[in-house]
Amino acid sequence: MKKYIPTTVRVLTGLMFTGSAIAGMMGKVPPPEPEAAQAFMGVLFSSGLLYVVKVLELLCGLALISGFFVPLALLVLAPIIVNIAFFHVALDPSGLMVAVVLAVLWVGNAVAHRSLFLPLLQARARVV
């Protein structure tokens, strides 16, 4: 039973990001309530940055679902999750639970791949 937990967490994370990316690309994401959040999303949309983020979310979500390039996908998704969390903390608290769930799932994935992430936490890089 324990051996299926990391796979389940990985696939669930991938499904969340893939679904969010597809919904975002199709314009099916409801606009946030507060005016400041709407203004921020408007800037992201008009600059084209939101499209880039959604493409990254789609690629990383598919990587997590398939099991290929999982550490790279987690590394790319980390700043996206931080931005999602800050957006909901500062501008739209109604979606904060989604940010918490994403962060918990990301940590679960990172713990499962901790042997690959531990070298990133060394103060001095060891050249091989």
Overview of the molecule:
This protein has 128 residues and is mostly helical. It has one domain. The chain contains six helices and no strands. It has helices at residues 5-25, 35-47, 49-66, 70-90, 96-112, 114-117. Helix 1 (5-25) packs antiparallel against helix 3, helix 3 crosses helix 4 (70-90) and helix 4 packs antiparallel against helix 5. The mean pLDDT is 93.
Can I get a quick summary?
73% of the residues lie in helices and 0% in strands. It has 128 residues and is mainly α.
List the keywords.
mainly alpha, 6 helices, 0% strand
Please, how many domains?
Answer: 1
Count of helix runs: 6
The SSE string, one letter per element, is HHHHHH
The major sheet is characterized as: none
Q: Can you tell me the overall shape?
A: globular
Whole-number average pLDDT? Answer: 93
Oligomer: single chain
Number of strands: 0
Strand content: under 5%
Give the low-pLDDT segments: none
Distance between the termini: 38 Å
Helix content: over 70%
Radius of gyration: 16 Å
Which structural class best describes the helix and strand composition? Answer: mainly alpha
